[in-house]
Amino acid sequence: MTSSSSSNASPAGALDSFDPRSGSVVERALFNHRLWVLLLCLVATLFLGFQSTRIELNASFEKMIPTHHPYIANYLEHQKELTGLGNALRIAVVNKQGDIYDADYLKTLQELSDKIYLLPGVDRAFMKSLWTPATRWVAVTEDGLDGGPVIPDDYDASADSLAALKRNVQLSNEIGQLVAFDQTSSIIYVPLLEKTADGQPLNYATLSDQLESLRSQYQSDSIDIRITGFAKKVGDLIAGLKQILLFFAVAILITTAVLFWYTRCVRSTVLVVLCSLVAVVWQLGLLPLLGYELDPYSVLVPFLVFAIGMSHGAQKMNGIMQDIGRGMHRVVAARFTFRRLFLAGLTALLCDAVGFAVLMIIDIQVIQDLAVIASLGVAVLIFTNLILLPVLLSYVGVSASAAQFSLKGEQAEQAGLRRHGFWRFLDLFTQRRWAALCIALSLALAALGFVVSLQLNIGDLDAGAPELRADSRYNQDDAFMTRSYGASSDLFAVMIKTPSGACSRYDILSKVDALDWQLRALPGVDSTNSLALLNRRMLVGLSEGSPKWYELQNNQAMLNMITAGAPRGLYNEDCSLLTLYAYLTDHKAQTLTRLVDHVEQFAAANNTDEVQFKLAAGNAGIEAATNIVVKQANREMLFWVYGAVILLCLITFRSWRATVCAVIPLMLTSILCEALMVWLNIGVKVATLPVIALGVGIGIDYALYVMSIMLGHLRQGVSLSESYYRALVSTGKVVMLTGVTLAIGVATWMFSPIKFQADMGVLLAFMFVWNMVGALVLLPALAYFLLPASRVSKGQAERKPWAKSSYPLNLPPRAQEAVEPARS
């Protein structure tokens, strides 16, 4: 900065020559009552900080499923009759030194089964193991059908009792279900309730800890314990997500270090970080007040709020620092920066809020809760980073050396030195040749990305629990279950509604039998079970084991007799609901889609007034419904978020051309992000769906800050090249700073033991960087063709002589007019 420029700016920038009645109503209300603003923010921080200590981390099974989808509605309608088909644990107790017909093994199994039976939240009536009375065997004898509990009533651990147990297991049809094929392990099947006996929601973290305690108690050199199920998966997620505090701390350190490197000012760096942390405290404090809790998906939101806050805070701090460097008093600099950037910041935060809010259209409560929690966080940023930060900086200011350092490039230019090489490179994209080349390359990338994105799958693409690492304890346990029991834990159930007392009718069972046979032939279906299949097997048993009688007999008396002794899991109490089970090899999206399509076609052809085939129950059925909801919401969500962003940009810029320049880079990033998901084998699911919307909402921040400054200069008659340069030195370099810094911060998530957190880190880092590149490269290239000098108000330059002056053109007209009298 030259001495003449400093002397000219100082009088108008001095506090005693500044009119406190100038500015908008909001500005006057805030800056003319600064002390009250600080006191109110302090009280809010103390109160909400105390409330934040009450925040809980938990999950709910029903919150993670689309309860209004027809499939889930069918399941919930018959939930009491289908207990165990939704949220259940499978605990395998393994004898590492022999088979299950061992007295010590059976004693351990009994003790463990009894302790699990008493755990809070267990649906005890439907719990099942070798020791439960409901586990029975059936055989055909000379006297007719015989049967009983698998563990003999007179079991005494003797050799004879163990031999009887072995015989009973062979007759129980539980091999592959409760007993492993190699008979070295058996399952304790534990269905869970949504609430415990005291009416409180089941705490999955506590339940997981209790299970781990039992595992450590009973696991030994001879016994191994394997546990799978939704509750254990969520428990492991919660345990792993507690490490997010470490990643949060790393992100704070990285952003603080980079911000200090950029500013060389301790006080302003500390204030930006402090205000962003205050936003997180406010957000966490509001959650228990409003009845919300964090879950494995929304636990990452506080970091996103911190990241967004750092981005906006750095912009405000940079503007104040530059104005102070030009000789303004810190209060005047804070007010001018507030005028210059408040609208752009508010619009950007509204776009962020829209990116979160559109998630409400997804009929899955865990995502809707995430939308509310994130929207709260964005709302508090308006107060902490757009208002509190400028007010704080108006008190403490910045160091003189840092203020001068912020104008280093500007001072060098005014001294006749060349602009920084990087600025000269970016300026190339305001020229026809480079602009055309950039747009052509972007079109090619968009076309390639779109072709690749067509292969994007909905749902999980990996076996086991894709939310966790492949080598996690849970996925190792799941792989063991699949190997030992011939099928994964993925169960798909079709409900067949019949008239009361008619579930054993031949015409109904024949339809169930036909569907049973068809499903067995589908790829991905390992086995099935139904009342029709039981009738076939029983008829063979009643016919001296002759396979010639493996048929569904058209003999109603015979069907009624077999049905009377059938397990209640195959039909309900009043014989009005049959259940057809399909045990799947995995829960991949392709497997579920193929199965759902086939059952839907069968139902359409066979449903009558009396018989309806309804989808779907079981964990795989619920996941199939979730995939359908996610697929429908994916494009609908993008439509709404882009529509809202475009509308807000039109309001802010009052120019459709400027709006196109800002939105096109976002669209390119969205396309490339979907292509990246294909390349990384990541499907669109509950965990990744929010990232796509958030990338649009957060990404528009960069374009708004660059375009708002650039468009203001263009309307003053300044050339595109000069306008773009002024945007770069004021807000553009902070866009680069925050884009790279935040990308590094979220990239640390790749080391998380939680797979979906690592996936979110990769995708968010990619979107942060590409949105930044789009705002700095593609935006000016588009502006060359859409916003040439002939389409802006050149006449304003003639009416406002300061527009051509040497004074840095980064103030809005009102601020410039406040400075201009001193210049004249």
Outline the biggest β-sheet. 4 strands, antiparallel
Q: Based on helices, strands and strand pairing, what is the structural class?
A: alpha+beta
How many domains is the backbone divided into?
Answer: 4
Question: What's the mean pLDDT score?
Answer: 81
How many DSSP E strands? 9
Which class of the largest domain in CATH terms? Mainly Alpha
CATH superfamily membership of the largest domain, which one?
Multidrug efflux transporter AcrB transmembrane domain
The value of Rg in angstroms is: 33 Å
Strand order of the largest sheet: 7-8-6-9
What is the CATH topology assignment of the largest domain? Multidrug efflux transporter AcrB transmembrane fold
Global geometry = elongated
Share in helix: 55-70%
- Which CATH architecture of the largest domain is right? Up-down Bundle
- The termini sit apart by 19 Å
Number of helices: 29
Please state roughly what percent of the residues sit in beta strands, choosing from under 5%, 5-15%, 15-25%, 25-35%, 35-45% or over 45%.
5-15%
User: Segments where pLDDT lies below 50 for 5+ residues?
Assistant: 1-11, 790-824
